[in-house]
Design a protein that fits this description.
This protein is an alpha+beta fold. Helices cover about 35% and strands about 25% of the residues. The chain has two domains: about 5-140, PurM-like, N-terminal domain (60s Ribosomal Protein L30, Chain: A, 2-Layer Sandwich), CATH 3.30.1330; about 155-310, PurM-like C-terminal domain (Phosphoribosyl-aminoimidazole Synthetase, Chain A, domain 2), CATH 3.90.650. It binds adenosine-5'-diphosphate (ADP) and magnesium ion.
């Protein structure tokens, strides 16, 4: 199978009529795709690369990899409150492996269809397996959720659950074991993350700042804090119990449980801030998009990130010495 057969077979699908609300004027097949964001909209653009051995294991199911490659990009649109328009795929492959391409493209297209984010172009070359997707979205000018904007007194919220993907990774690494069904659940969270696109859109005009959690809750929150010029106090216990498999997380002991939930990474949830007076609006955004939202702390005027237990005491030194919290 040559390069052009490969593209035609797996990646150049005719776009359904009215794709992305008619915003795709031209898809795959020419030198450029043409996107037509609606008047008054800003184009939101983000790229994420996945490298074998660093971002995924060579044993991963190709369909799950196709899903995840797009999901991590959609998560960036979600964090900005942007709605997807389309995406491009730059792909380096060691060889034209039909089984891999069939699964990968199926997983990718399934999420592209579900999210209204069709593939509109890309590049294909031979080389070590490497995937780079760029997503394009739109958001009303002035309404994008940014990392800056959090104010002292705001509540800090997290969507969904954190810590599960790290739990799965540690099972793969052989550092712990889980019963079969619990492993399936956390593996699903690691391999098929749910980008919170609808929640991000619903939080426009409600959240004061947002970021998606790819490197760990506290690490990513600290980027938001720095951009906003504020500090925060996070209740470790609340964040820890948002894990779908929190019983298994807790069984690891408080220290490891906190490390997985607070700095585990690969969660693709949103962490965001909103004034306390907007708490009902945040809950309504969560309910309208069927996304759990949990308040986990508050923004302080004083710089720095403080992690406290249920009674407000700072967590012990061993815990707070994790690199992510430095
Ligand atoms: P060019 O030579 O202009 O870079 P290519 O020959 O690389 O064009 O690609 C031909 C067409 O196929 C272009 O429209 C390009 O966007 C599309 N394409 C190439 N690779 C991919 C891919 N992996 N996924 C989607 N579209 C692709
Ligand atoms: Mg090219």
């Amino acid at each position: 199978m040559g390069e052009f057969d490969l593209i035609a077979r797996y990646f150049a699908r005719p776009l359904p009529q009215g794709s992305a609300g008619g915003a795709i004027a031209l898809g795959t097949g020419d030198d450029c795709a043409l996107l037509a964001p609606a008047p008054g909209m800003h184009l939101a653009v983000s790229s994420d690369m996945l490298v074998e051995g660093r971002h995924f294991l060579s044993t991963v199911d190709p369909a799950r990899l196709g899903h995840k490659a797009l999901a991590v990009n959609l998560s960036d649109l979600a964090a900005c409150g942007a709605e997807p328009l389309g995406c491009t795929l730059a792909l380096a492959l060691p060889r034209a492996d039909a089984a891999f391409l069939d699964g990968f493209s199926r997983g990718l297209w399934a999420l592209a269809d579900a999210a209204g984010c069709p593939l509109v172009g890309g590049d294909t070359t031979q080389g070590p397996l490497n995937l780079c997707i760029t997503v394009f979205g739109q958001v009303p000018a002035g309404q994008a959720l940014l990392r800056r904007g959090a104010k002292a007194g705001d509540q800090i919220w997290v969507s969904g659950t954190v810590g599960d993907a790290r739990l799965a990774l540690e099972v793969f690494r052989g550092t712990l074991a889980l019963p079969g069904d619990a492993f399936d659940a956390v593996r699903e969270r690691m391999e098929r993350p749910t980008p919170r696109v609808a929640l991000g859109v619903a939080l426009r005009g409600v959240a004061t700042a947002a970021i998606d959690v790819s490197d760990g809750l506290l690490g990513d929150l600290s980027h938001l804090l720095r951009a906003s010029g504020v500090g925060a106090t996070v209740q470790a216990g609340v964040a820890m119990t948002t894990g779908a498999t929190s019983a298994h997380l807790k069984a690891l002991g408080a220290e490891r449980c906190a490390a997985f939930a607070l700095s585990g990474g690969d969660d693709y949830e949103l962490v965001f801030t909103a004034p306390a007076s907007a708490a009902d609006a945040v809950r309504a955004a969560g309910a309208a998009t069927s996304t759990p939202v949990t308040p986990i702390g508050r923004i302080d005027a004083e710089a720095g990130l403080r992690v406290v237990d249920a009674s407000g005491r700072p967590l012990d030194r061993a815990f707070s010495s994790f690199d992510h919290f430095a």
